[in-house]
Design brief:
- Two copies of one chain form a homodimer.
- Chain A is of the alpha+beta class and about 200 residues long.
- In chain A, about 35% of the residues lie in helices and about 30% in strands.
- Strand 3 of chain A pairs antiparallel with strand 3 of chain B.
- The first copy, chain A, binds a DNA duplex (30 and 30 nucleotides) through helix 3 and helix 4.
Chain lengths: ~200, ~200
DNA sequence: TAGGTACTAATAGTAGGTACTAGTACATAA
DNA sequence: TTATGTACTAGTACCTACTATTAGTACCTA
């Protein structure tokens, strides 16, 4: 199938193939390239690629369980609530990571910061359901991956089921973001579909 | 360590233990329970639990590769860009899922909608780097998991490196969200750290 | 005492290797 | 021409973690 390749070329292909599909045994690779199993093994030896079983173990080991994925996602997007006084105020922390950045800039994407602020704002509303209706966001300084965001939210005004929540996000005492949000609360009785 | 257990009790524990840690071999289990390897094998046979290597393969196989995770995340949070005219306008689609909702309400969390809008707004800026500075968001109707969001963004005004982008998000022709964003572009030369 | 359950022991065979030795074909340098 | 090196093949001994099977013991119960 792939015979008559140069050694270097073959090794490149094997490496790529195993990266894509770590389940290929030496025997199958030998069949694919029309060479002996021994040659495949020498190739792996040269490239320091471990045996199939070891490769599979490695894949399995850095498999996050579903639970882990979920909690990670939650943490990543929403941050960690560290203090709440329902109906008054709350504090949340988000450790930013490389996964949240733009291409090569190192700057955290704006919606992660909003997610933190919005989630916190909703968390401090003392009602079964709270929905954001209006928001005014101000990004004051870029945030770089690795920096820890501290968000503080406060209910500034309340009128019936309408809350004005202000959120300030800081990195090392310095404000990088603030927002004013109008949030509406519902008690889950009428199942209103419209907000306005 | 765990000797003198009843068979049924032991089997329950083994089952749980292997669910938690599929990497345990029969020999290790035998050591843990102070019984013979053969007994462990009979236990597995009874419970139809496959051998260690097979268990590891199963874990590895439903491991999403990093690429898959990334694209999933991208799709989930940012949506799919379906049309762009750089410097002018763009359209993106996001299929909402149960993962994006509040507790039991079925209503999509607001930051997913903002993420779609914000990402799209930044995508249509014709510059290496674009950062959101200010945003005004209006959530007009709640979005329910399963609904498909269609976002349209347009550059309304431009002054130097400052863009005013308006985004409208619709579900079935009906507007559920709109936003006005002030986005700043940078050409990656000066590496400005402040936006304002 | 026979039968069943729970457990142990041992053997043959398997996949997918490691580690090692030996040998061939071919090219290149002294 | 000979020597050396490379690329490759072949084969053995050994390993782990099993499967499948047979055989046997201890103990309880009807």
């Amino acid at each position: 199938m792939n015979q008559n390749l140069k050694k270097s070329e073959r090794q490149k292909r094997i490496e790529g193939q195993l990266r894509e599909n770590p389940f290929l045994s030496d025997r199958k690779l030998a069949e694919i390239y029309g060479i002996s199993i021994q040659t495949i093994r020498l190739d792996r030896l040269e490239m320091r690629i471990p045996e199939m079983r070891e490769r599979i173990v490695q894949v399995a080991k850095n498999t996050p369980t579903l639970d882990k994925v979920k909690s990670l996602k939650k943490d990543e997007i929403i941050g960690e609530l560290i203090d709440i006084e329902l109906g008054k105020n709350g504090i949340a922390i988000l450790n930013t990571t490389k996964r949240m950045i733009f291409g090569r800039t190192g700057i955290v994407r704006s919606h992660y910061i909003f997610s933190l602020a919005d989630s916190l704002a909703i968390s401090i509303i003392d009602a079964k359901i709270a929905l954001t209706g209006l928001a005014r966001l101000r990004y004051k300084k870029p945030v770089y991956a690795g920096q820890t965001l501290i968000a503080k939210a406060r209910i500034a005004r309340k009128k019936n089921n309408k809350y004005l929540v202000s959120v300030h996000v800081k990195v090392n005492q310095e404000e990088v973001f603030n927002a004013k949000l109008i949030v509406f609360s519902f008690e889950d009785k009428k199942k209103k579909r419209g907000i306005k």
